[in-house]
Design a protein that fits this description.
The chain is α+β, with helices and mostly antiparallel strands and about 350 residues long. Helices cover about 30% and strands about 25% of the residues.
Length: about 350
C-alpha cells in the first residue's frame, strides 16, 4: 500500500514538473522581443507605413450619378493608421475614426473629383454639391489626383503623406501637416472616391484618365486632453525613414514667437543652408501651434544620417533655443508622395 501511494505521488509530482516546464516553454515562445530605437523604427515603417497599402478602396458610388457612395472599412482603417504613424513619431496620442463624419467626407471628395478642382468652400452650383460635402471641405484637408500609376486605393493613403509633406505654392505654412499633428486632435473623418473613367485635361496640355480624391476632416475633433510634447517638429526628433524626410522642415511650440528665430541644420561637419519660408503666429487656442518652416539645401540621404537641428531666438517659450536630433535611416524604394508624384494637389 505504501509503495503504491509513493508511486502515485511520484507520478503526480513528476507530471506536474513536466506540465510546468511545458507551460514555461510555451510562454517563452509566445513572448516577442521588445524592440527599441532603430529596430523598432524599422519595424514600424514596415508595419504601419508600408503595411497600409491597399489594392482597392471598394468604392460603391458613381460620379455620373453624383452618388458619393462608401468605401471598405479597411480603407478608412488604414488611413487612420497612417495618420497615427506620423503622430507616433512625435509622441502624439493616436486618433480614432469619427464614423459619423464619413458620409460628409465622401461627399466632399466627390465634389472635388467631379469638378476637377480643390476648394474649401464649394458653391451650390458645382457638380455633385451637398451641404454635408461643404461642411467637410471647409473643416478638413482635401486632395485630388489624376492618372495614378498605383492601385486606386493608394491615393487615399498617399494623400496622408501629401498632407504631411505639404508641397507646392500656397502651402509654405504647412497647415495640413499642422492639423494632422495637432496634440488636441482626437479623431478624424475620412472619405475617398475613385473613377477609372474620369477625364482630366491638365494645364500642361496632357489628358489624364482615372481620378481620385480624399478628404480628412479634423473639424469638431479638436477635443483631446493631451498637452502634447514640448515642441512638434517635422522631421521629428526621432528615427525616421529617409523617404519621409521631405523638403519642408518645421518646428512648432504653442504661443511662441518665431518672428526673429534662426535655424541651423548640421550633419557631422556639414552645415546646410536653410531657407526660412514661413513664420506662423498662433491664431486662437484651437489653432495649430505657432511655427517656423524652412527648407535645407542639398540634403541627400544615401545612408543612415543624424541631423542636429537648432532653433534659436525664440520668444514666448520655455527656452529661447532648442536643439534636437533627426535620425534618418536609409530605406529602399521611394515614398509615393505628392510633390514627387506631380499628379496630386492638396488644399
Amino acid at each position: 500500500m505504501k509503495k503504491g501511494l509513493l508511486f502515485s505521488l511520484f507520478v503526480l509530482l513528476t507530471g506536474g514538473l513536466i506540465l510546468s516546464s511545458c507551460k514555461k516553454e510555451a510562454d517563452e515562445q509566445e513572448e516577442e522581443p521588445v524592440l527599441t530605437g532603430l529596430e523598432k523604427a524599422k519595424k514600424d515603417y514596415q508595419d504601419l507605413y508600408v503595411g497600409t497599402k491597399l489594392n482597392s478602396i471598394g468604392w460603391t458610388g458613381s460620379e455620373t450619378a453624383c452618388n458619393s457612395g462608401d468605401v471598405d472599412a479597411i480603407t478608412r482603417e488604414k488611413v487612420v493608421k497612417r495618420v497615427n504613424y506620423y503622430r507616433a513619431m512625435n509622441d502624439l496620442p493616436p486618433v480614432t475614426l469619427n464614423k459619423a463624419q464619413s458620409k460628409s467626407c465622401q461627399d466632399a471628395a466627390l465634389i472635388m473629383m467631379a469638378n476637377n478642382t480643390l476648394t474649401h468652400h464649394p458653391s451650390a452650383g458645382m457638380k455633385c454639391y451637398t451641404q454635408a460635402g461643404y461642411d467637410a471641405a471647409s473643416t478638413g484637408n482635401i486632395a485630388i489626383g489624376w492618372g495614378s500609376e498605383e492601385p486606386e486605393a493608394n491615393h487615399s493613403i498617399n494623400a496622408v503623406s501629401g498632407f504631411i509633406e505639404d508641397h507646392g505654392g500656397g502651402n509654405e505654412v504647412v497647415g495640413h501637416r499642422a492639423w494632422l499633428l495637432h496634440p488636441a486632435l482626437s479623431a478624424i473623418g475620412t472619405g475617398s472616391v475613385y473613377n477609372d473613367n474620369h477625364v482630366y485635361h491638365a494645364p500642361n496640355g496632357q489628358t489624364y484618365h482615372k481620378g481620385a480624391a480624399n478628404c480628412i476632416r479634423w473639424g469638431d475633433n479638436l477635443n483631446g486632453s493631451s498637452a502634447g510634447p514640448k515642441f512638434i517638429a517635422y522631421p521629428p526628433a526621432n528615427y525616421i525613414p529617409s523617404v519621409l524626410v521631405f523638403a519642408r522642415w518645421s518646428f512648432a511650440i504653442a504661443d511662441a514667437d518665431f518672428s526673429a528665430a534662426n535655424v541651423e541644420v548640421k550633419s557631422g561637419s556639414t552645415t546646410y543652408q536653410c531657407n526660412v519660408i514661413a513664420r506662423v503666429p498662433q491664431s486662437g487656442s484651437v489653432n495649430p501651434a505657432a511655427r517656423i518652416v524652412w527648407e535645407p539645401n542639398n540634403i541627400d540621404i544615401q545612408s543612415d544620417m543624424d541631423f542636429t537641428v537648432t532653433v534659436s531666438g525664440i520668444l514666448g517659450a520655455e527656452k529661447t533655443s532648442y536643439t534636437y536630433t533627426v535620425k534618418a535611416f536609409k530605406v529602399d524604394g521611394t515614398a509615393r508622395k505628392a510633390g514627387s508624384q506631380g499628379r496630386m494637389q492638396i488644399l
